[in-house]
Write a structure and sequence with these properties.
CATH class: Mainly Alpha
CATH superfamily: MFS general substrate transporter like domains
Distance between the termini: 37 Å
Shape: globular
Structural class: mainly alpha
Order of helices and strands: HHHHHHHHHHHHHHHHHHHH
Number of helices: 20
Number of strands: 0
CATH architecture: Up-down Bundle
Strand content: under 5%
Largest sheet: none
Radius of gyration: 23 Å
Length: 493
């Protein structure tokens, strides 16, 4: 690549123009794309960890729940609290802590969230009582809630526009990886240690990896976009140079155009609902809320639905019987979770060409079809029931990660301006988690009172509603973050 001095116009360039710039060889030949630097890959890999731990902890709860119930002798309402409290923590943390990244910076909150996660995770593994366990699960949720906007922003504000969607969704895919690893850990730990307190070892397995992630996050750049939004242009130039450090160095120097410094907006709920931001808020928050109703309900309670519907459970007369039941449902859950991976891989492949909005609508419709098949299966004989139930859940898992589960996360971190991007994305995640908390708490009760089939039919209707509202509030967010302002005013699909 060229090592000649790059002559930058006195006015300079914007941060995103530097990030998106394609290096050239000394003879003027351009590369086919903008290669990621080592720092950009480091930021991405450390952001991956947050989504991995979310999948691990949240979806592992569905596997560990029967053991927890036995360990603490829980009643139905207490079971609902166990499954819902971490999601309630995410609800609070996404806005209360995630929004702080607009004030204190992306890097500081990126580190702080993982410290909080580790502290409460250790507390969870040592929980002496039901109350202490609930407090620790809530604390874990706070940390994961902060990660929702923060992990997205540290990636999207550091990478080239052209590959941003795939990189963000690639990180998001590790939520599904975490879910599969959680199921696998549950199977292995129960096989080695078939005791009631095996659930503690399931959660403890994440402690050391999380500590290593904390250390790694100290060695990344802060977001130049955020620094510019605060008017700290010299620091933004320095961090842009660090972000784009490569051998040979390109660009040689970074001179930012002061006209591209963002104008800070006061962070408050009101700013999300003014004329400028209202449409973005509705798009980011409402479909995500609807999506979480299905994804967390089906995701957390798949082991229970499989065991109940397919009659896989044996009568529990001993701890060994209980462990065997958990292992059987965990294996079925792990198989279904593989479709989450395939779904998000498909989303990565199609997101830049097809667009966020179209994929979200297609995904919602596919979820409705999958849940419909699962509902119909309950009227069939046992053999056909098993095939159609698995087919329905497999289709649901694939389509939710192709569409709404992936795209709502992606859209929420792109559609807001930089100065309120953390707060806006955090608010959307919090609003969405109201749906997740409702589902996690009410699902055990509704499964008992109205039955699996009626519940699945209700979720079919909410999925269709999600597709409709995505179209109503549509704003396509492909391209440069600095140009999305136009898309927020004029919908482009």
């Amino acid at each position: 690549m060229s090592t000649e001095k790059i002559h930058t116009p006195p006015s300079g360039k914007s941060i995103q123009q530097y990030i998106d710039e394609t290096p050239v060889w000394s003879d003027g030949t351009s590369l086919k794309g903008t290669p990621m630097t080592a720092m950009q890959w480091r930021i991405w890999s450390l952001a991956v960890a947050g989504k991995f731990f979310e999948g691990l902890v949240i979806f592992m709860t569905g596997i560990a729940l029967p053991l927890i119930v036995r360990d603490f002798t829980l009643q139905a309402a207490q079971k609902g609290v166990v499954t819902a409290v971490a999601l309630f923590g995410i609800l609070i943390g996404a806005t209360m802590l995630g929004g702080l990244s607009d004030i204190f910076g992306r890097k500081r909150m990126f580190i702080a969230e993982m410290v909080i996660f580790v502290v409460f995770l250790i507390g969870l593994t040592l929980s002496p009582s039901y109350l202490w366990m609930v407090i620790c699960l809530f604390g874990i949720g706070l940390a994961l809630g902060c990660d929702y906007p923060t992990a997205h922003l540290v990636i999207s504000e550091a990478v080239p526009s052209k590959g941003r969607g795939g990189l963000v969704l690639g990180a998001f895919a590790f939520q599904a990886v975490g879910a599969i690893v959680g199921a696998g850990l549950g199977i292995i730990i129960l096989d080695v240690y078939p005791e009631v307190d095996a659930w503690r070892w399931m959660y403890a397995a994440a402690v050391i990896p999380a500590i290593l992630v904390i250390v790694g996050r100290f060695f990344i750049t802060d977001s130049p976009h955020w620094l510019a939004s605060k008017g700290r242009m010299e620091e933004a130039e320095k961090e842009t140079r660090r972000l784009l450090k490569r051998v040979p160095q390109y660009p040689k120097e970074v001179v930012l155009n002061r006209e591209h410094a963002h104008h800070h907006q006061k962070v408050s709920p009101a700013v999300l609902f003014n004329n400028k931001n209202r449409r973005a808020t509705f798009l980011a928050a409402i479909p995500w809320f609807i999506q979480d109703l299905g994804t967390y309900g089906i995701g957390i309670f798949t082991p229970i639905i499989l065991a109940t519907t397919l009659g896989a459970s044996r009568d529990v007369h001993s701890v060994a019987d209980l462990a065997q039941n958990v292992m059987l449902s965990a294996k079925g859950t792990a198989l279904l979770d593989m479709l989450l991976i395939l779904g998000v891989l498909a989303a990565i492949f199609f997101v830049e060409g097809t667009g966020r909005i179209k994929l979200q609508i297609i995904g919602f419709i596919g979820c409705a079809v999958g849940l419909g098949l699962a509902a119909i299966s309950l009227n069939l004989p046992d053999g056909d029931k098993t095939i159609l139930l698995f087919a329905g859940f497999m289709l649901f898992n694939f389509m939710t990660n192709l569409g709404p589960n992936a795209q709502t996360y992606l859209l929420a971190g792109e559609v807001f301006p930089t100065s309120i991007r953390g707060y806006g994305a955090g608010f959307a995640a919090s609003f969405a988690k109201i749906g997740a908390v409702m589902t996690a708490f009410l699902f055990p009760i509704l499964l008992h009172t109205i039955g699996t089939q009626t519940l699945l039919i209700i979720l079919v209707c909410t999925s269709i509603l999600g597709a409709v509202l995505t179209w109503v509030f549509r704003v396509e967010t492909r391209g440069s973050l600095e140009k999305i302002e136009e898309a927020r005013v004029q919908p482009q699909v």
